[in-house]
Amino acid sequence: MQGVLTKMGFNNTGDEYNIHPEYYINLDSERVDLSGLIGRKICLVYQNINRCIHCGRETKKLFGQGFCYPCFIRVPEAEECVLRPELCRAHEGIARDMDFAKANCLVQHYVYLAWTGGIKVGVTRYHQIPTRWVDQGATYAVKICHTPNRYTAGLVEVELKKIFADKTAWQRMLTDTSEFPPDFLSFKAKALEFINGEGLNYIPESDAVYRISYPIIQFPDKVRSVNLEKANTIEGTLTGIKGQYLIFESGIVINIRNHSGYLVELTY
Fold it and tell me: Which domain holds residue 110?
């Protein structure tokens, strides 16, 4: 079957605090149960065609995970504050689309710590939990605090980036088999102590820890990421899915979200 890649979705077959993502992907009008393909051989072939995930037009180059350039500079999903919350200006009435901003920026946000083979700090909208953590490949997460909007969450994150990483080391995340990280909640206490008295607008959260278990039958010892524009074809036995990565028996991995907009043929 053929279709344009977009980021993988999932259904949580666990509960609120013990999350078990069962992955799927939509290729045109058909939904493919990716978790059900684990242990089977699959083949992805790039058709050398890119389509904007917003307007659908064919384009030579994609920007910002799947947009043609006109959409990239226009649509709210690609606004600068998506990657840098502290730059959000929606609270000042300034945004590419204020209706979008009211639903996604001017709402409660969480600042959190996640374990992705190491501790990292991040920001997400209240309605993106646990999606944000699953997309990052986190195995544990805890909310530090919540804020009234994206901008104030970004200010808290900027402060916490002085003592915590804010990027995921994807190789370490994909090969990580750690059990409960040592003193995980102590990192949260350290975070709250660090921002206390800084004049930031936040409310501390409880110490509830979330755990995410991914559908993986074999963890790779080493991983090698493949880009479809260079490899064109990826084929092999699918041994797991974590974050937005498909993991193959050979140790080859592909980030599906990074290939949003690519027209592919999938066989299995």
Answer: 79-213
